[in-house]
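User:
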Amino acid sequence: MTDVNVTTEENSLNIPKNYLNNDVGLGRGVYISTYGCQMNVNDTERMHSLLEMANFSPVQTPEEASLIIINACSVREKPVHKVYSEVGTFKKLKEKNPGLKIGVGGCVGQQEKENLIKNQPLIDFVFGTDNIDNLPNLVSQVFETGTKAVNAKFEHRAPYHVETLVRNPGVSTFVNITKGCDNFCTFCIVPYTRGREKSRPLSHILLDVRTLIQRGVKEVTLLGQNVNSYKSEDGHDFADLLKKVALETDIERIRYTTSHPKDFNEKLMHVMADHQDKICEYVHLPFQAGSTKILERMNRNYTREEYIAKINQMKKIIPNLVLSTDIIVGFPGETEEDFNDTVSMVEEVGYETIFAFMYSPRPFTKAAKFEDQVAEEVKNRRLNYLFDVHDKLAFELVAKYKDQTLNVLVESVNEQGKAFGRSTQNKSVYFLGSNDLIGKTVPVRIMTATPNVLRGELVQ
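Assistant: Predicted structure:
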């Protein structure tokens, strides 16, 4: 069995002890299809770890599997149709192997529940985002009884006690610190698919980081829907947590995502500035829209002016700050003037990377009921224009890296000797190297710089 990080300290895993050694899988193959945010990717790793404990073996293709799970995101448009379409491609596999079981999890599973099975009979079970730790028991039930099952109930009152489960963590890995969201932005389905906000105990997080270090991890990314709203059971906030990870563990690098502007305070800025030997200067801070009118309709709880003032304060305290952001184009009621405010925000702040999307109505959200929806062709035109503006800006911003020597943490080296790693600015860097560099931080002189990739040479 692949090495899995499992301990029973403080009974931090909400897992019935009777299944940890239960041979549910009988060595059968499991294939998990994943799409969505880093949280979904991390959840898939957790599923694999739990199922391996139950003697399922990960396989690379659906054809090899006796268990297929679709871990589906519902943030963007038509996620349910995407799930139905993917399940439909497995019909011939089911005909060939009637014992094949198909499950759906993630935010789509939480959102749709029994409707998924009702509308797509090929699906055998559905589970929600709060029910991942019970997955082996659910799968066992489905295999043993042959009945369909749904487990998508939120455990609102249960504390957030989980352990980081990573089969092969490598050089860099995620550590969950919060889950859920209490902000209820009018466009966002996360509070309905991930539940209300909960924070893990600080001691559990520190234990996880120390355990991962023992397994060779050099960099952790603290993960949550809104990491900087973290609040431990004894009152420590996110800045306190970040400082403790930096000072009380031997981790070499620390990143985090995603932050909410309303919770990004001066205390956090100073912790980042004071501990740059470990905390990377890269911050992902979504602004979503450049118009205060639209921000108010989104329920973002800040104005354009407040956001820009916070960015200016961050740049003053952290002079080498590198920024990326999320943007929604075509939110209901967005006029050309509002959209131009978004474009000017991108130009004024100077984001090296943007993640921009057309607005799409999501179930249960207030914005889906707004009557002044923007036409699809208008949204598409605005999005393309925004990308064009940013592409030009991004090339200008990354030109500064040419001829610089950056510290690159090497994550992999391919058969051709091309090494890959990331700088503290979260830049993907490629250069010629050898396998003995994996896990080491090395100086790389940048020869060519584009918005997505930096290429350089190892400084001997």
